[in-house]
Amino acid sequence: MCQFIMKYSVYELISKYSQFCPKTSENVTISHHLPQLTPIGILLSPPIYAPHLSLGVQYTRQLNVTHLKPRHCAHSRTMPLSLTSVFVAGCCLKLLLFSAYHSTDFEVHRNWMAITYHLPVREWYTNTVSEWTLDYPPFFAYFEWVLSHLCPASVVEDGALDLVAKGSYGMPTIAYQRITVIVSEILLFVACQWYVNSSVEDRQNLNTKGSHAGVTRKLSTIKESKEETEDADSSLSEHPELAATKTKPTAKLRAFAVASSVVLSPGLLIIDHIHFQYNGFMYGIMIASMVAARNGQPLLCGALFAILLCFKHIYLYLAPAYFVYLLRVVVIPGNSFKSLRINFRDTVLLGLIVVGTFTVCFGPFVAFGQLENLKSRLFPFSRGLTHAYWAPNFWALYSFADKVAVTVMKGRGAVSGGTRGIVGDVAFGVLPNVSPSTTFFLTLFYQLLGLGPLLMKPTYARFVGAITYCAYASFLFGWHVHEKAILMIIIPFTFVVLRDKRLLLVFIPLTISGYISLFPLIYTSAEFMVKILYTFAWFCMYFLWFNHRLVSDHRNSITTREFLLDRASFFYQMGFVPVVALSVILDGRPNMEFLGLMIMSVYSAIGVCGSFVAYSWLYMCEPGMWQ
Amino acid sequence: MPPRKRDKKSASPSPQPPSPKGKKRLKKKLPSSSDSPTRTSPLWDSPLGFFLSPFRPTTTQWGARYMYVSFALIIRAAVALGPYSGFQQPPMHGDFEAQRHWMEITTALPISKWYFYDLQWWGLDYPPLTAYHSWLCGVIGKYVNPEWFELDASRGCDAYGLKTFMRLTVLLSELLIYIPPVISFAKWTGKQYGYFPTDLSISAAAIIFQPALILVDHGHFQYNSVMLGLALLAFVNLNHQKYVVASFFFVASLCFKQMALYYSPVIFAFLLGLCVFPKINLRRFISIGVTVIVSFGVFFLPLILGGGMDQVKQCLIRVFPFGRGLWEDKVANFWCAGNTFFKFKLRYTSEQLQMYSLTLTLAAILPVMLIVFFNPKRKLIPWAFAACSWAFYLFSFQVHEKSVLVPLLPSTLLLATLDGNVISLVTWINNVAVFSMWPLLRRENLQLQYFVVLFLWNWLLGNFEPSRLWTATLPKSIFWRLVVIGFYVGMVALQVAEYLYPKVDRFPDLWVVGNVLLCAPCFALFWLYTLWNLWDKRGERA
Asked: Where are the transmembrane segments (chain A) (predicted)?
């Protein structure tokens, strides 16, 4: 009897552990019968050992449904590529986040509602009842004015519109303001849906693979590997749908993947729906302007960007790219320099649009004679080089180097540096101090560098690439950069990432380091699981989707250099697991919180800076990618 | 093609599904239809199907699995941000305090005192596995912050970090114990009937997003998912014909929460049937018997070693509190609903009521046991467990409103099917169950979570799409259509009425009683439906 039970349990033990063997076809058949025994086994069984989605072939044979597939596929309809479902699902999650933590930005926006509700326009930018003074351009103030007038009576009673130094409010105010974020974000969904709907097969997709220069160069190295893959694929070709997935996905599907990845961005979830800001709709306007550029409506593009600038002036960082693009497309169109001539009609129109927008926005305040006041509100240079929490940029590395140098040289009588307040000035101990003009010129220099290629060939891809490049430059070298500005790089980047596999290799470390560096924004423990899991799910979903299905790889092979870089990037990504764990552990300990934050921001800064170097390389030296 | 089949079915002049004729005819068709590969899940055009459609071409579903498990956890974590039972409600607080208190006493006291310590303040009243689980969580929690679990000093502790920690233990327990067997169950069912792999993902996701469990475990705060997960592991192992392991997991489930007793008659009859039919298998019988005894022994061993048989006796007294009355609060079962018209508690003594309750329960579960005993087929597992546990919920003694989770689990497992009728009724009964917990959730200020999670699940299953209303959301037969529509109308009416008139002075319990009276008949009807299906499907080849 005992023997019998023993036999049973041993059998199960063996089968349990058979899952942990490397995956061979025999092993698959064993583990496939017995994954049910251990809960952990079920969760882990195939995924870890199935590095490609396309490993499905073996599984089909086991299931013995191979013969079913074509017929099944016969009536599988094509899904309409609509973001409505994404919006509804997102809404459910965002509604549940009502009870989550919100930062002081919530009080900031509440105060702005109160200011715009109670005061005449003349006093909007002079009121200092609360320390959270209005410091966004006037369109945003108008927006707050609209929100304050839509406020239901029950919310007003709750204290949503009290013009006081420190507001006291309850759930109704939170619910109302959170709902305004969700509703205003519809604009982002609309812009993204427009992007999907107006996508058409571009020229590049129709070209044959061989026409690309890279292929001929590497042809010899591909051949061997290609034969192998084709061998494996031969079984797939029997089934129409499986075979269909091997061909290039349509432009619309790719556009849908890009659009959904933007609207589901963990950055927007963390910043807008937990931390509390209104970035969603502003990125919506920005995306709409890019889509307008792609659809050959440069005037609309310019108008939308002008409106965007009047909502939030941080987008000024992208203005050089827009300026050069519009200059080359509207003002002096034409591809070769011989045929250059000025298009007066469109130039005047564009000028009227931009000037008109700015007049509507700033006109009243010019009339009140408050331009100086407005300027000091919008550009407060009194703040320090870095934010209290270092944004993962060049200055984070610089500050870190200074800290290390101070620690090393302490014994030799160096002054301890790095004194700072919340918005105070930063003084370095060893390295030279950085002035605002230094950061300004550095930013400008890199931005100008990125504008050269756009000036030569103002294609849509170049344009989006240049926006990304400008955002990179300003994020890395700008004065008092917030970690939230990382979205300004990631969002335009997403729109070009599917053009080439190498761009994806740059995109992955950027998004990982960028989004993870947002985690300290939400420092409360309750939201930890939400932010971690959401970001994880987003990474899994989009990196797999982009990598295995959508990215167009013109060359079918990678060089040794790329392979090594890819490995390095992989290990860098894995490094985030201990970094995040460390920051969580250090968080609770006295005197150690800042160490955790520093490790996090310096480690992310390596990723962002590294991706900038790689991106610059691709942007400058691979013209084929940007046609 | 599914539409054609449905047309035939609905064209046949048998309005009520529980009419034997219509069913028999269907039954003859079923083997061919379940073998037929052209059928796809009726949920394929729901938003859930849409979200999983990128995984449609691949035959491995691990990518899809990552997705729906991650998003299920995200939703749970987001629900967990809300308040919990007894949050800042002195003097007694609620279930959250009970669980925390158990972590406190199990880590601070020797085993011999666990079941005796200050019984007035949430004395431990679950079987030993809960105590060990509490001990494990308590040990980890004490490592994080000892103040949360200071003996006596920490009573009613509502520290911010404590909430996070406790919520995390629920989430991890569920991830490790509940979610894997759900996936495995859906997989097995799919393989059994030759479904398309995406359809398995759809059904597994639909089961995992079940709103009732999310709200009770992550909103109200309990560890039901552990008990249900262990029971599910038993079901899954039954599916895979590993009876010894199945009985071990079932005993574990029973030793976690006594509520798993609702399943025990079926599992007993099923295993006994397997030992008798087709021929008597003594070896199997003995090995199962020994496993059960040994596993009980293993789970109670620390108690015996720590405090002798007294401890075990005290544990049993605490676990089965017959002195606590026929039901708690207001629960949508036979007794509580009937009490509105016929005052049981006034007419009969507690002993008499216990007797009646026992008799009724036995009478209700006997047919299930007999059917399962004579037909121990794996295909019947969810139907049998559903029928048996609904009978318990409706007729047995000492039922909570949260006990509805127990019958709801096997009922929800029925979503792993391609039969649109079953799916629509299972969705409906889930909604009924969630609605039956509305008074509880409202008391705990979980209104937002209640509406969002309920909406999310129904929307995911496509219940809000007008184009699916007549084809998929509502069942095919006129009778069930009336019942389902009637319930939804009643539900909306009750909620609107309660919103407009929160307090009616003459009848303080008006809305709660209305809730009970609306839900109890629905549960009873669904019980009959599962019973009927069990009877009807008994002859089919497994």
From this structure: 81-101, 175-196, 255-276, 296-327, 348-368, 388-406, 426-448, 460-482, 503-522, 528-547, 568-586, 598-618
**Which has the closest alpha carbon to B28: B375, B541, B460, B472?**
B541
The reply to whether residue B239 touches residue A36, judged by beta carbons under 8 angstroms, is: yes
Select from A23, A37, A82, A548 the residue whose CB has the most chain B CBs within 10 Å, as the one to mutate to test that interface: A37
Reading the block at residue B51, the tokens are 């979200």
ipTM confidence: 0.86
CB contacts, 8 Å: B197 with chain A: 59, 63, 65
Q: Is B361 left (phi over 0), alpha (psi -120 to 50) or beta?
A: alpha
What is each CA distance from A271 to A492, B77, B364, in whole angstroms? Answer: 17, 18, 55
Best residue in A16, A99, A246 for a mutation probing chain B (most B CBs within 10 Å): A99
Question: Is residue B91 included in any domain, yes or no?
Answer: no
Tell me if B43 is assigned to some domain.
Answer: no
**Tokens standing for B95?**
């279930």
- Contact between B315 and B304 under an 8 Å Cβ cutoff? The reply is no
Contact call for A93 and B83, based on CB within 8 A:
no
Residue A208: which residues within 8 A CB-CB, separation 6 or more? none
Q: What is the pTM of this model?
A: 0.84
Tell whether B233 lies on the interface with A, counting CB pairs under 8 A: yes
Number of compact structural domains in chain B:
1
CA contacts within 13 A on the Cβ side of A318: 31
For A389-429, how does the pLDDT look when each residue is reduced to its tens digit (9 = 90+)?
788 989 999 988 988 888 888 766 544 444 443 344 567 77
pLDDT given for residue A561 in this prediction: 75
**pLDDT, block means (10 residues), chain B with 542 residues:** 37 40 40 47 84 74 85 94 84 86 91 84 88 94 89 84 92 94 90 81 92 94 94 93 93 93 93 88 92 93 85 84 70 86 82 88 93 90 93 88 92 89 93 93 92 94 85 86 94 93 84 92 95 88 59
**Domain boundaries, position B361:** 321-414+477-542
Per-residue pLDDT, A427: 72
Give the Cα separation of B414 and B389 in Å (integer). 14
Q: How far is A201 from chain B (nearest CA, A)?
A: 20
